[in-house]
Recover the amino acids of this structure.
């Protein structure tokens, strides 16, 4: 990302560049714009507040919520410790049911597999149910580009995801992909693909989408879904939706392809009990989603619908390198989105500010882990470390601790800015010596004299990151240690 | 009861009156208060920014200073700095057995001010009087790492004349976050503004916290935006006149 | 392309164990000890099932016998002015005996078995009718097992969907329903279907009948 930029560009517009602020690029720049967008702010508040209210009520009413969370963590931990075993068991179970299993190292492998399959099947229309794994590898764009001769029509079928696709945007939230759009914007987008101007009411917009998507559902050649969970013991893929699109995508077309991150496997069917209860309550505040669907291989003997051909793609794409490391817990995520909902940073900026497929605290953690620190340098710092994410996570991922570790990893890799590195060296020296500490305070008190007005500092050189927004409290005339010496 | 004060660097230099109130309140409870002179900072700014080596150096010094004293508890008027010592020293020293053990011993003895007053001293009512309509802002470390949320509220609810109000989304972070406040100033300020909007809606004229750092940020934004809301540490409230 | 053995070999790893950290904040939903209800046996699972389903905008009805259930289906077909009903080809629905009266009332009835254009029929149908293996009281869910004669599309494509099942098939909880399949061989598709299809993607406004049926009825018999 940054390598293509000219080195040492002088930025006259941003006077805070020389201080300690994050570079006015990446998250800081996008966040700065986002916090000024009142409409965006209202949309985010609407979604997050409503979802959290439901989530809190559901989990407070659950007699075993604390036990479920701990069980989820331990199940994930056990699974990761033996991931090769469980993936192998799952692959065997699916093959036994007549399904195909493919191990993909990365997105390229997935694209090639799906593209070749589409070619072999002579497929034209591919319907998709919302899947973050395929968003992560930009499956749609890459299929269209790499297999342009097939002229594939790839259609997202989740209402929000479809609207995002029509608008050429990415989802801004794991669960609510277009929470950043208001009705007016959606009306504009849908009217653009309709013969007529649609009225800006939710019912009409949904009715239009329903009709349009129904045509795609029934004519699709291949259905693609992700997997909320994959069961090793039985080879079962579990998807949860409210609209029913995942169920249509897997019931109607003759071919079903599942793109599943390898971390989504759980050992036993009974483990679904823990995770289904947690996911629906945390993600949308429901006791259970409308369609909790369990698919085990292709349609059975004598069945008249469901896919004849079933393909499971187990995708690594950077996940396995976290196994056995101090970052492994990031793989426990079940993509419920509740860390986004509670995150005070996300609540101000929305998802697009993160500039990555996964946003919010979990996005700030896994983006650098999957893509590398250089690709997402600013994300671990896009947090006040308040810990609301960790507290909320239904599987107990210590998200803010992982953010801290990622910050440290950047420092150790030499990715921290020079000014900051020097500052903390100086900080260490000062704080290790009471004499230096006292001397520093003395200098500070002298230096601030001309700046203090009415008991506060409105502007100070090198401190504009603070003083452009807030009054700065001056150093007291006498420190506590001096007052103590004088006697309290 | 002998308590060693750990006065965070910004309280020492910017809000020494908070430290003074802590001393007076503790003495009123009959606590013998000592102040280890060699202390400076716990190293949290470096730690939060990912500079763990620098934080470890400062942490070692902290261990040296406090291990050299005789006390029953370390008492600190900041949930955040207490957490640095109680939770994050063991975290940064995880792979260093000697320091890890030393930090775990100290972690068991450091208490945030309201935690110490309520749970160690067993005092919930100071019999003081203070007029005002207040909201309480619980710092995030205090709430989530320490789990000390009810104690300050209980202490405040027993202050005569003080009307403790609810405010919307009170669990939301104020946006300070240490270096976050200057690294991402726009987002940090937007977070403060959301708190301030909730504060206005509540009708409070005072905001109280156990963390002067949150108050420095909220107070700084309040003043910049023309508010005259009073901004006080819990210790200052408990240091009010008797009723 | 990755070879299976190589792929699995590369993820076999040394273990490093994190520790589960319980939440501490007294107002967190995960913190043990906060006020929460005791786990309780649902005393009247049928009544609870209907209550939960109706809270979601579905319709639940308990009847004494199959005759009453048949009347329910006939009334519904009349009210919806149905022209075509598609149903699972299973014994229980034969016993229901709704086909003839429906046809008499001018409603075409199609059974889910091997006929051409089956997909089109389901797509055109006004009502889908099925039975269910289980129902779940705490959530108002149906447990649908698909197989020969038990098409997925029947429960999915028509705008109105009715399920009829014996009242003694109502289980208490979701974990109990999941346990029914633990350790066994699963049908190619099992679905926990809970109320009308819905979406909140546009400004969090509830849209009912997004892709699946928006009009959902369950009759518990006996």
């Amino acid at each position: 990302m940054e390598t293509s930029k000219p080195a040492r560009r002088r930025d006259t517009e941003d006077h805070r560049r020389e201080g300690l602020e994050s570079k006015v690029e990446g998250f800081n720049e996008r966040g700065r714009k986002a916090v000024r967008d009142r409409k965006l702010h209202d949309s985010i508040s609407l979604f997050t507040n409503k979802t959290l209210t439901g989530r809190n009520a559901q989990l407070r009413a659950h007699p075993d919520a604390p036990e479920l969370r701990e069980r989820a963590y331990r199940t994930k931990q056990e699974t990761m410790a033996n991931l090769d075993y469980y993936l192998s068991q799952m692959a065997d179970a699916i093959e036994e049911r007549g399904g195909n299993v493919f191990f993909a190292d990365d997105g390229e492998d997935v694209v090639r597999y799906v593209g070749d399959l589409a070619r072999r099947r002579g497929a034209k229309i591919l319907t998709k149910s919302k899947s973050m794994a395929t968003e992560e590898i930009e499956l749609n764009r890459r299929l269209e580009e790499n297999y342009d001769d097939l002229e594939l029509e790839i259609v997202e079928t989740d209402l929000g995801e479809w609207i995002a696709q029509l608008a050429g945007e990415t989802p801004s939230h794991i669960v609510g992909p277009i929470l950043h759009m208001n009705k007016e914007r959606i009306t504009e987008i849908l009217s653009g693909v309709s013969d007529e101007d649609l009225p800006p009411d939710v019912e009409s917009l949904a009715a239009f989408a329903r009709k349009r998507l129904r045509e795609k559902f029934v004519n699709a050649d291949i259905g693609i879904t992700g997997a909320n969970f994959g069961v090793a013991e039985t080879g079962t893929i579990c998807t949860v939706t409210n609209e029913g699109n995942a169920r249509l995508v897997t019931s109607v077309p003759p071919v079903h392809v599942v793109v599943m991150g390898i971390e989504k496997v759980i050992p036993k069917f009974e483990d679904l009990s823990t995770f289904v209860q947690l996911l629906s309550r945390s993600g949308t505040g429901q006791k259970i989603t409308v369609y909790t669907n369990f698919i085990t291989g292709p349609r059975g003997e004598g069945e008249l619908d469901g896919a004849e051909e079933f393909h499971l793609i187990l995708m690594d794409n950077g996940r396995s390198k976290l196994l056995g490391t101090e970052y492994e817990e990031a793989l426990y995520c079940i993509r419920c989105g509740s860390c986004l909902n509670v995150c005070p940073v996300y609540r101000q900026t929305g998802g697009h500010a993160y500039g990555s497929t996964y946003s919010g605290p979990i996005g700030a953690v896994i983006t650098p882990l999957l893509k590398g620190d250089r690709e997402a340098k600013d994300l671990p710092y896009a947090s006040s470390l308040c810990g609301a994410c960790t507290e909320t996570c239904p599987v107990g991922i210590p998200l803010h601790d992982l953010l801290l570790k990622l910050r440290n990893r950047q420092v150790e890799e030499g990715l921290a800015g020079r000014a900051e590195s020097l500052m903390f060296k100086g900080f260490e020296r000062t704080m290790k010596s009471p004499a230096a500490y006292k001397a520093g305070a003395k200098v500070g008190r002298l230096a601030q004299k001309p700046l203090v007005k009415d008991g506060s500092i409105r502007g100070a050189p090198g401190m504009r990151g603070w003083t452009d927004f807030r009054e700065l409290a001056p150093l007291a005339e006498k420190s506590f240690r001096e007052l103590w010496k004088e006697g309290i | 009861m002998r308590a060693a004060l750990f006065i965070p660097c910004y309280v020492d230099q910017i809000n020494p009156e908070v430290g003074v109130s802590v001393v007076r309140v503790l003495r009123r409870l009959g606590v013998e208060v000592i102040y280890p002179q060699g202390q400076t900072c716990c190293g949290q700014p470096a730690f939060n920014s990912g500079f763990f080596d620098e934080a470890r150096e400062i942490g070692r010094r902290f261990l040296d200073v406090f291990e050299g004293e005789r006390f029953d508890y370390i008492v600190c008027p900041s949930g955040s700095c207490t957490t640095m010592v109680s939770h994050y020293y063991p975290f940064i020293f995880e792979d260093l057995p000697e320091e890890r053990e030393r930090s775990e011993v100290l972690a068991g003895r450091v208490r945030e001010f309201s935690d110490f007053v309520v749970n160690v001293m067993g005092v919930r009512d100071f019999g003081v009087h203070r007029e005002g309509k207040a909201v309480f802002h619980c710092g995030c470390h205090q709430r989530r790492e320490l789990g000390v949320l009810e104690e300050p509220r209980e202490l405040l609810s027993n202050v005569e004349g003080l009307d403790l109000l609810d405010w919307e989304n009170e669990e939301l972070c104020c946006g300070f976050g240490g270096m976050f406040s200057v690294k991402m100033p726009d987002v940090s300020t937007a977070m403060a503004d959301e708190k301030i909007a909730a504060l206005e809606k509540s009708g409070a004229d005072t905001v109280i916290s156990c963390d002067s750092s949150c108050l420095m940020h909220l107070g700084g934004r309040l003043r910049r935006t023309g508010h005259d809301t009073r901004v006080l540490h819990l210790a200052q409230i408990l240091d009010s006149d008797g009723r | 392309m990755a070879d299976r053995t190589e792929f699995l070999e590369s993820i076999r790893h040394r273990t490093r164990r994190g520790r589960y950290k319980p939440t501490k904040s007294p107002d967190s939903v995960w913190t043990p000890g906060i006020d929460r209800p005791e786990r309780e046996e649902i005393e009247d699972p049928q009544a609870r099932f209907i209550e939960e389903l109706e809270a979601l905008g579905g319709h639940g009805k308990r009847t004494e016998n199959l005759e009453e259930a048949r009347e329910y289906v006939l009334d519904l077909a009349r009210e919806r002015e149905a022209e075509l009903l598609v149903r699972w080809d299973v014994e229980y629905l034969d016993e229901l005996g709704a086909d003839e009266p429906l046809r008499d009332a001018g409603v075409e009835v199609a059974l889910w078995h091997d006929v051409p254009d089956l997909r089109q029929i389901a797509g055109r149908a006004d009502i889908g009718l099925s039975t269910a293996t289980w129902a779940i009281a705490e959530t108002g869910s149906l447990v649908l097992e698909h197989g020969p004669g038990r098409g997925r599309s029947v429960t999915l494509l028509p705008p109105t969907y009715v399920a009829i099942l014996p009242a003694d098939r109502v289980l208490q909880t979701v974990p109990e329903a999941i346990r029914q399949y633990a350790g066994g061989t699963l049908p190619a598709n099992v679905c926990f279907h809970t109320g009308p299809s819905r979406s909140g993607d546009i400004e969090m406004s509830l849209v009912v009948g997004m892709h699946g049926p928006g009009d959902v009825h369950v009759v518990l018999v006996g």
Notes: The longest helix of chain B spans residues 185-202. The mean pLDDT of chain B is 97. Residues 9 and 102 of chain B are 22 Å apart (CA to CA).
